[in-house]
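Quick one, T. Sequence first:
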Amino acid sequence: MTSLVLVMLVGGLVGAGLLLLVTVFDRAPVSGAAGLAQIDALRQRGARTASLTADRRHQDESVRMRKVGAGLSDLLAARGIRLSSSITANLGIVGQSRETFLARTLLAAVLGLFLPFIVLAFPIVTGMFGSPAIPLWLAVLGAAIGSLMPWAQLNKDAEERRRDFRHVVSSFLDLVAMNLAGGRGVPEALQSATAISDGWAMVRIRDTLEAARLQGITPWTALGQLGDDVDIDELRDLAAALALVAEDGAKVRDSLSARAASMRRKELADAEGRAAAQSQSMLVAQLLLCVGFLLFLTYPAVARVLGG
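Structure tokens:
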């Protein structure tokens, strides 16, 4: 039985290796138009990565991980497989590159594949499972769970950072409205507002505005693109509001202040909701402790009655 499990495991690994080799080397010739499209896509992705990791967090990423992820990314792109827009936006707000995310997903899947064999080595060798299909199914399940772990962690981190980013945007709106009320133009008001802090969110906005100035596009267009990249509606609304400054500046200043107040009320409501949810979870934990204590007290009497 043990030899059969080893033969199946080795056969699966050899088959996976052959499939990987065929996938890597079996590439159809690329036409001129498709090649130019791939070059444009790589250029846009590089520019987006440079802007979305403006707070220098990408410097902590392993070079080896990025190389592995780059190869995997090129392989998926050659097969027409792309990451969803939600994952791309989460990577943007977290400041993690696409290559590192793919490399971590692959590493977690491989670890999940071999973890059941490591943990259950003794039962497998002694033949306690009876059927060799059980360890193989556990390995497949471990690989699936392992590949989902980086995605779950990415979603958790992105949600926390979006909450912080919205808090910064509400303060940014007030600062922009104050600068507009002081008689400054829109570009000067935006630059002055971003110079008030060196937090990662304000640095992201400041670098976006600086890149817009160098590229020759309007600041509100750049803010709208940043809102699309990190999936924050408040930035898109701010871009739409700033586009109306040339027509009616006074009303736009009032609108920015009202938007900031509305965002703060929403953040307060969300904080109260999270606090209520945590209170409910603490109540459930207390009830479980009470039930366990009651069972501990009544168990001797119930056991004596049933035993008698």
